[in-house]
Specification:
- The chain is of the alpha+beta class.
- The protein has a single domain, classed as Translation Initiation Factor IF3 (2-Layer Sandwich).
- It is about 30% helix and about 35% strand.
- The protein is built from 2 helices and 4 strands, in the order βαβαββ.
- Strands 1-2-4-3 form a 4-stranded mixed beta sheet, covered by helices on one side.
- A hairpin with a 2-residue loop joins strand 3 and strand 4.
- The radius of gyration is 11 Å and the shape is globular.
């Protein structure tokens, strides 16, 4: 199992969490995981939509207090 990279997008508002996610995923290999930590509730819709368009998979979306944790598996680009 490859390591999971973490991206801190707390206190960033749309569209910055998506842009930062895109930048991070571009540096990763298919099959690697990215864990996004965000506080903008919009990421619960924006990140899954971005993943569908770009061929990545959302493994989980969790809420812990005011933080939203989204784990993405990078797909073939």
């Amino acid at each position: 199992m490859s390591e999971t990279r973490e991206l801190d997008a707390r206190r960033l508002l749309c569209p910055l969490p998506v842009i930062r996610t895109q930048d991070a995923v571009e540096q990763m290999q298919p099959g690697q995981r990215l864990r996004l930590i965000a506080t903008d509730p919009g990421v619960k819709n924006d990140i899954p939509a971005w993943c569908r368009i770009n061929g990545h998979s959302v493994e989980s979306i969790e809420e812990q207090g005011d933080e939203i944790l989204i784990t993405i598996t990078v797909g073939e680009t």
